[in-house]
Design goal:
The longest helix is centred in the N-terminal third of the chain and has 26 residues, at 3-28. The chain has seven helices and 17 strands. The protein has two domains: 34-194, no CATH class; 205-310 and 333-370, no CATH class. 20% of the residues are buried. It is elongated. It has helices at 3-28, 31-35, 82-94, 191-194, 243-246, 321-346, 357-360; strands spanning 51-55, 60-66, 69-72, 78-79, 99-100, 125-130, 136-148, 162-170, 178-180, 205-212, 219-222, 231-232, 260-262, 275-281, 285-295, 298-307, 352-356. It has 402 residues and is of the alpha+beta class.
Length: 402
């Protein structure tokens, strides 16, 4: 064998040996390293999920699909916020393993990966995904949040840190413990956070009539146009409304919001409203709202809606055909939107809500708070001021004529 052939054999041996060493190392690579970057929950059909259950050591919330609508069981099957829920399930499906974690039973409380139904410290938050038959699709136990380093911070927390990940366990299997890069802060069993917060939207107010338990505070304000000034419909004597004090009524319940749904309280003969309001709009909608103090700045609130919508448009005199066709089309489109609005808002009739004071604040005002201040007129019998004495001064050096 000459020198050239020997060199070739050595190089070939190195290549074969290197390939063998690579395969050997691959076989010896810890399983945890192979999992890094893999999907935490594997591959599953998110569309197969028909129920989501979230539980901690003290509270539980059940979200379930009934027909085409997702509802919140703990709120009397009130509609859930589908967008929030769908985004949450998709996020779970896309989670990836940042780092597999080996932990024995003694370390589970430290990682807060103890099932919430077990007694003792270190309980996590259990998220269960189920199909339409109630069978488990996947379950995920959420443990301690991983904290970014802040002032004196560290991987498990510290002063000034912030959550940038979370320790999790899949399907209750201890060998599935891993660290993910999402803290999943929205995964809380708070029913009020999962309900659909869409609400009535009162627009183009025309008249507001308020009846209080104190009859002296009853009031009614009306206006002739959408941008017109508010006037007292039930003015007494020389009472007048102060338009600057009434300006807050322009957007009354236009941006109404509620905090929660009351499932164990409703207006009836025992629980009577302290304030009842009837709101009429230029579009023909009539809203009847009831309010009663719950506690502090929270109020029980109920609103029902009705509408008197014209079925046909009255054509103008000498209206041209091209104008008629255009106006008829506009009327039809507007009427259809109003019909859809009525259908949507009538669904709120049967529920009692918990709202903040700012939502109903203008309905709680006393009559006097809308009145213009009366100018005091001077008393008729007031003594007139004496006019100052005028002295006539004659020019010097001139004698009086005789």
């Amino acid at each position: 064998m000459n020198k050239k052939q020997l060199t070739l054999v050595i190089v070939l041996g190195l290549v074969i040996g290197g390939a063998g060493l690579y395969k050997y190392n691959q076989r010896q690579m810890p399983e945890k390293d192979a999992k890094m970057g893999a999907k935490l929950l594997g591959n599953f059909d998110v569309n197969a999920v028909a129920a989501v259950r979230i539980q901690n050591s003290s509270t539980v919330v059940n979200l379930a699909k009934t027909g085409d609508i997702w509802t919140v069981k703990e709120r009397g099957d009130y509609p859930a916020n589908f967008n929030t829920l769908a985004e949450f399930v998709r996020k779970l499906a896309d989670l990836k393993i940042v780092k597999p974690v080996q932990a024995g039973p003694s370390r589970l409380p430290v990682l807060e990966l103890v099932p919430p139904d077990k007694k003792g410290p270190g309980a996590g938050v259990l998220v269960e995904l189920k199909d339409s038959a109630g069978k488990p699709v996947k379950s995920l136990l959420l443990g301690a949040k991983h904290m970014g380093e802040g002032r004196g911070g560290g991987p498990m927390g510290g002063d000034g840190g912030w959550p940038n990940g979370r320790y999790v366990m899949v399907d209750g299997k201890q060998d599935s413990i891993a660290l993910i890069s999402d803290a999943l802060t929205q995964a809380e069993p708070k029913a009020e956070d999962w309900i659909n917060k869409d609400f009535v939207k009162v627009e183009k107010l025309k008249a507001i009539s308020v009846t209080s338990t104190n009859a002296t505070n009853n009031w009614k304000l009306v206006r002739e146009t959408e941008s017109g000034e508010w006037k007292l419909a039930d003015a007494k004597g020389d009472e007048k409304a102060d338009n600057s004090k009434c300006s807050g009524l322009n957007s009354l319940l236009q941006y109404a919001a509620f905090n929660d749904v009351a499932t164990n309280w409703k207006f009836d003969e025992t629980n009577k409203p302290t304030t009842t309001a009837v709101l009429e709009t230029f579009d023909g909608f009539t809203y009847t709202a009831k309010a009663a103090n719950k506690s502090g700045d929270d109020y029980y609130f109920q609103v029902s809606v009705a509408a008197d919508l014209p079925k046909e448009r009255t054509a103008g005199k000498d209206e041209k055909k091209e104008d008629k066709d255009k106006l008829d089309k506009e009327f039809k489109e507007k009427n259809q939107k109003l019909q859809e609005k009525l259908k949507t808002e009538k669904a709120y009739d049967k529920w009692t809500y918990v709202v903040s004071k700012w939502t109903v604040d203008n309905l709680l005002k006393e009559r006097k708070e809308f009145l213009a201040e009366k100018k005091e007129e001077p008393k008729k019998d007031e003594a007139k001021k004496e006019e100052p004495l005028k002295l006539e001064v004659k020019p010097a050096g001139k004698a009086d004529a005789k």
